[in-house]
Amino acid sequence: MKKIWFSTEHIYAESTDGKILKQSLLWYPRLANASDEQKNAFTIGLDGIHWPDLDTDISFESFLYDDAEPTPLQRFFLTHKELNISEFSKRIGLNATLLRNYINGFKTPSKERETSIMNAIRELGKEYMSLGSIPPCVADEQEVHYSSKHPQ
User: Fold this and answer.
1) For the chain, what is the domain count?
2) Which of 4, 23, 89, 148 is the most buried (most CB within 10 A)?
3) DSSP code of 152?
4) What is the pLDDT of residue 137?
5) Is residue 23 part of a domain?
6) Do residues 115 and 86 both lie within one domain?
7) Based on the domain organization, do 23 and 55 belong to the same domain?
8) 125 contact partners, CB below 8 Å, separation of at least 6
9) Residue 110: which domain range?
10) pLDDT of 149 above 80
11) What are 50's strand-pairing partners?
């Protein structure tokens, strides 16, 4: 590689033969959240790029992978780290390790399995949306007054 640069969502590389390659930064959260100074503090080795301060490596080969861009399923879980994969897996009756393998690209779900997982995500979204119909708390409806005086 002779040149490396970034956009908000991607890392780009120009190969020695002039080919422009890119990958999603969703695969590399440390790099995605790094400052420009940290992103530019890399070394290029024989087989990849290394960011010592971020403890992150990207192989040249990975720019050529079919999954350089996450699928919608992968993108959902990579951007919603607040979801507990183990608990979500239990909910849908799927082995948690298998779901993690789907998310990280180590395994590819069948079309039917992917549809099933995406439908479960939609159902979860519907449940979250229904929270808007819950009556507000009494504390939300009343103005709460606090006194700086403490009882003696």
Assistant:
1) 2
2) 23
3) -
4) 60
5) yes
6) yes
7) yes
8) none
9) 72-132
10) no
11) 43, 57
